[in-house]
Amino acid sequence: MQVENASVLLLLAEIHKKSGNAVLGLPYALASLSFCQSFNLDLLKASATLTLAELWLSLGSNHAKRALSLVHGAFPMILGQGGLELRARAFIVEAKCYLSDPSFSGVKSASQSLPLLQVLQEGIFRRLNFLRVLSAPTRVYELQSLLYDPYLHPSPTPTPHHHRYRYYDSKQHHGQENDSQLNLVGFSKFVRSNPRSDRFKVHRFHHIEFWCTDATNSALRFSWGLGMPIVAKSDLSTGNQTHASYLLRSGDLNFLFTAPYSPTLTRTDDPTRPNNSTASIPTFDHSASRDFSSRHGLGVRAVAIQVDDAVSAFTTSVAHGAKPSAPPILLDNRVTIAEVQLYGDVVLRYVSYSNSSHVSDSNPDLWFLPGFEAVTSSFPLDFGLRRLDHAVGNVEDLKSAVSYLKGFTGFHEFAEFTAEDVGTSESGLNSVVLANNEEMVLFPMNEPVYGTKRKSQIQTYLEHNEGAGVQHLALVSEDIFKTLREMRSRSGIGGFQFMPSPPPTYYRNLKKRAGDVLTDDQIKECEELGILVDRDDQGTLLQIFTKPVGDRPTIFVEIIQRVGCMLKDEEGKVHQKGDVVGLGKVTSPSSSNPSRNTKRRSKPDKLQSQQLLDSPLFMIL
């Protein structure tokens, strides 16, 4: 009877708290607490204490000290006997106490908020995976929301994953293009400049993570088809009962394939299992992964870039409008990762290391992420792929996507294309490319053009992908002839297939356009392998596109190599300059003057453009 009385009183207090009547709720919370103390109802007493603390806190920040005292007084019972939900709630209330009153927390100004956020994050976000396993997404997002705002004002609780997804309906966007169009001048009139406007230091692409339903077979197919050996794993054999992840690497190119195990394997209420998560990717979410694969099929979940400081990159991004996905998490005291939304269900993942020696470490396997074990039995493969040049996204509204990414990163416009540049009278697209200061991280984004005779290939992608996503990945080869010979030899036995080759007339005219750069034998090899060749004043680009790599006409791969136009990055490594969107007409500024290149380019020739229209990038469906 005493339990029922205390519970009813606590329920009334909660009702008044949620309705915003803290003053009316206080007496009920105090009465419930009194009942619990009198009859030794310890766990119910802890819950009543937290409710009382929340009521005091809702009356104003001047009550933060009183609320915090109540929470800390209940901690011994909560941490000793309370369940995960009660413990998580206690940490939420404690965080609210600290964040509600900066002066009470010892923070005198908004600029001093970061140290406090970093102190709080370790105690709070260790529990996120516990809550995910318990299927408590609202608690997860309530915890995350407390650290999203660098000015110490918690943002509204984000929507859980299973409510965040939506079906893409092209009819919703048709007819809206006039309101959202960018004022694009087109390829030939665009004048590039580099204001070096990054808001935080960006080094390079770090890795690409694919979400799939079967990581083993997906990884093996890409390994076999691209010549990228599996170098590390995190799965059941390493103690990971949350997800299977396999890392493929070739040079600086890293592909990670992740698929979920059954969430029942990591039930934290099972006394036979340790009371923590086994995930090596702490931002992994079972329900989000399954929803992603159901809606998009095989696709890119995360585009990871290496930054100087992931905490700073995250807080700076959120302060400038980025939508947070996962706050900074420190792994093994050496790696920090954080995530913000990029477009659709794709996240931009920040990765930083506590020790900069990873840049030149002779064993890069040690510098991926904690929780992965090296794989030495993978079949030795090397087709000559060396790094990711660009990751192209298809979006519904280019103007808002460009404004969003540019706003929180500070990236500058690197190139642009209109329907006249890359389309036909029957179909087309608009495209803008954003780049970091060093122009080694490129983000092209495309939108469909409506009102044409045939449906835009970008619109087709959006329909099959059910929204925005990564359309293709451009991979730099150090020897495209070797790469293509190897890839084509595997096309019919588990590898990747390529788009149809250009007609013979294309290669007969090629000697006139590139005969001073390519030998007759090389031109012959280009024809045999179906390689496209393009030139501008800064070099020659060799390129080819695969067909879509999965069941849906969505994501595909581009292989590129530049002849000439090499530059050194900040670590002294020599790289080919950046390419964009497979056109090859736009490259990075010369290394002697990295901040400015104002030379206008001529349009791609008609024959080259027509061949590109037959590629998956510009296919007309």
Automatic annotation (TrEMBL):
It comes from the Eukaryota. GO terms for cellular component: cytoplasm. Residues 266-290, 581-608 are annotated as: Disordered. Coiled coil: none annotated. It is found in: Cytoplasm. Residues 587-596 have a biased composition (Low complexity). Its EC number is 1.13.11.27. CDD domains: HPPD_C_like, HPPD_N_like. Its cofactor is Fe cation. GO terms for biological process: L-phenylalanine catabolic process; L-tyrosine catabolic process. It holds the Pfam family Glyoxalase. Belongs to the 4HPPD family. This is 4-hydroxyphenylpyruvate dioxygenase.
